[in-house]
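Data availability (excerpt). The following record was deposited with the supplementary files.
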Amino acid sequence: MTKRNSVSDRPCIIPAYRAWLQEVGWVAEALGIVSAAAYVSQKHTGQAEAYGLPPLTYDIAASTLSDICETSVAAGSPPGSVQLVLVEGWELEALWSVVDVLRRSGDAPAGNEDLANLVRMYLWENEAHHPGALADLIKALERVLAVLTLDIPAAREIATALALRREVSPALQHAVAEVRDVWRAAGIRESEESDAS
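Predicted structure:
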């Protein structure tokens, strides 16, 4: 249902769910911390990949997620609706690279211990706002990627309808319900679910 092999720009259907956007913001914040640490490490040690990836990759991933949050809030869509965003192929590749290195970092001894420790320290220091462990951050990023890479006919139908500003129809409502079912199966839920955009 989701595709990684495509690096082209893609229209993505995202939920205007408060809880999902908060989770996206939390992941963006954590990746922003890793990006900053990676830049500092690169500057002081000369190691471009001290945290498993170049700092720019973390920066792209964090910025992409921050942009999604800002775009969603700026759109002012009703809670529970769906929105159309364009995510560029290189942004998706950065997100996939980050989730891959985070997964490996959770699997000591093969993982990047410095990265795992940095993320754990961030999560520990921000426990009051974002309780969780490294595994929770990985799962959250996987849920984000599940939304951004969802490639089923219903998602394409919604993207077309939103891009062309079509009126809500029974077929579109059915497509939205189908996409929401997939999101629920991926662990993305919101109590404020309502009709299509």
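Summary of structural features: The chain has seven helices and two strands.
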